[in-house]
Amino acid sequence: MSATASGYGFIGLGNMGFGMALNIRGKLPKETTLNVCELDEHRRMEFKEQASAYGPVEVSNSPKELAGVSNVILTSLPFANAVADVFENPSTGLLAASPKGSNKLFIDLSTIEVSASLAVGEAVAKSEAGVFIDAPVSGGIPAADNGTLSLMVGGREEEFDRALPILEMIGRKESIFYCGKAGAGLAAKQINNYIANVSFLALGEGMNTGIRFGLDPKILAEVINAGSGMCWNSLHMNPVKGVQPNSSASRDFEGGFKTELAHDVTCMAVQLMDDVGAKHVLGNVIKDVYDRALESPHCKGKECRSIYRLLVEDDGKGLGTTKIE
């Protein structure tokens, strides 16, 4: 199905979904209808008001109702249970209105456990209602709003080819990766996030050590970025306020990718390691750090790199003894 076909649906107008759906509506032909489904009434009405400037938008009362008028359906949901219910609920789910041979294309943009995604994909295959791919996204709310997300896709290659014109409405062409079989997109995203979270913790430990020794944090940051310790976080997200003006530390860790979300994707990555029998040394360590972060007033509800505060705050909940200036 080409990107100009009629019958598009989008479920989940949350922080990420709102921008993605708005980009899709803006890039579809003006005469094509975008059908949306969202539990939050204020959110869906706000979306319809904004998106209707680009063409027709209809609000569906359930996934089942949306499936009745949509051939290409994208889902952006927070948890595996929500994804399973949206697809498999016998009364209100997508598959309840997707008869055998309807050849629908289901694109799940959610970040959930690989095993949960595979189970939903199997339910779709069993229904013979169409095809399912996992296509988790990366880049945060600004990229969702700007249509410049990165996407990692799992499924059969012909299904990826069919989905690509739609994915290019929300992501940069050069940052849309076909990762392989079903679940491969999620696996790639979780592995990447895991590495980023571990490297950030190491960066925080190093910066805290340097400050305690008496090093100038800006000079230490320059040394790291000119040496083998350099990583994406050291280049862009130094945890010490004042070192990098655009890092989350400069905003006191407000906004961005929340601690709770980083905790969840880290747990997913460690679960994936266990599921495939991959040895890990740091998996349980980083899980423990994020478990503590969920209980810390310095990190709860904050941007995920606020875990640096566990190293430098002494309140009985942290990991260290020095104070933030």
From TrEMBL:
It catalyses: 3-hydroxy-2-methylpropanoate + NAD(+) = 2-methyl-3-oxopropanoate + NADH + H(+). Pathway: Amino-acid degradation; L-valine degradation. Keywords: Branched-chain amino acid catabolism, NAD, Oxidoreductase. Its EC number is 1.1.1.31. It comes from Zasmidium cellare. InterPro entries: 3-OH-isobutyrate_DH-rel_CS (IPR002204), 6-PGluconate_DH-like_C_sf (IPR008927), 6PGD_dom2 (IPR013328), 6PGDH_NADP-bd (IPR006115), HIBADH-like_NADP-bd (IPR029154), HIBADH-related (IPR015815), NAD(P)-bd_dom_sf (IPR036291). Residues 9-178 form the 6-phosphogluconate dehydrogenase NADP-binding domain. It is an enzyme of class 1 (oxidoreductase). The keyword RNA-binding does not apply. Belongs to the HIBADH-related family. 3-hydroxyisobutyrate dehydrogenase subfamily. This is 3-hydroxyisobutyrate dehydrogenase. The keyword NAD applies. Residues 183-296 form the 3-hydroxyisobutyrate dehydrogenase-like NAD-binding domain.
